[in-house]
Amino acid sequence: MTPGPTPPPPPTPPADADGQLAEQLLRLTRRMHRIQKRHLEHSQLAITPAQSRLLRTLAHYSEPPRMADLAQRLEVVPRAVTTLVDGLEAGGRVRRAPDPNNRRVVRIELTEEGREALRELRSARRAAVQDILAPLDAQQREQLGGLLNALLDVPEDRRC
């Protein structure tokens, strides 16, 4: 008995394009953090990623915020902000200051050391971005920027 024609292989399921994009975004984020960390180690800044985030957040306020404002903006519990501020204050990068209108309220101010740390953080971030974007030409960078803006400009009611 001669064998008949070989049946075709079963169809392959469609690729998980969203899963692949999620993995690519995660890998890119990790790579950015690794490169930035390497640059920061050379500067001997001795700052954690969470402290870095708090410093960057502080820089966006026109006047020193309350701890509760920082916790809300960072989307963490107030206790976490207290720990971060303690560490940054010990390093001279921030200081607690009384609110001039309510002595029970404490505001968090950047010090000159904190501003210098921010400059070093920004420099490390720029170096990491330059490394990551090196393979792209100007048009591709502009296109990527537009796509990222579309992802970031999500209405408040659709955010997680």
Give the topology.
Blueprint lengths: L16 H27 L5 H10 L8 H8 L3 H13 L3 E5 L7 E5 L1 H22 L4 H15 L8
Antiparallel strand pairs: 1-2
Quaternary: single chain
Give the fraction of residues assigned to helices.
55-70%
Instruction: Classify the secondary structure makeup into a structural class.
Output: mainly alpha
Strand order of the largest sheet: 1-2
Shape: elongated
Indicate the radius of gyration in whole angstroms. 23 Å
In terms of per-residue confidence, which ranges show pLDDT below 50 for 5 or more consecutive residues?
none
How far apart lie the N and C ends? 63 Å
Strand percentage: 5-15%
Order of helices and strands: HHHHEEHH
The major β-sheet equals:
2 strands, antiparallel
Q: Overview of this structure, please?
A:
The mean pLDDT is 87. The chain is mainly α. Helix 3 (67-74) packs across helix 4 (78-90). It is elongated, with a radius of gyration of 23 Å. Helix content is 59%, strand content 6%.
Short description:
The chain is built from six helices and two strands. It has 160 residues and is mainly alpha-helical. The protein starts with 16 loop residues before the first helix and ends in an 8-residue tail after the last helix.
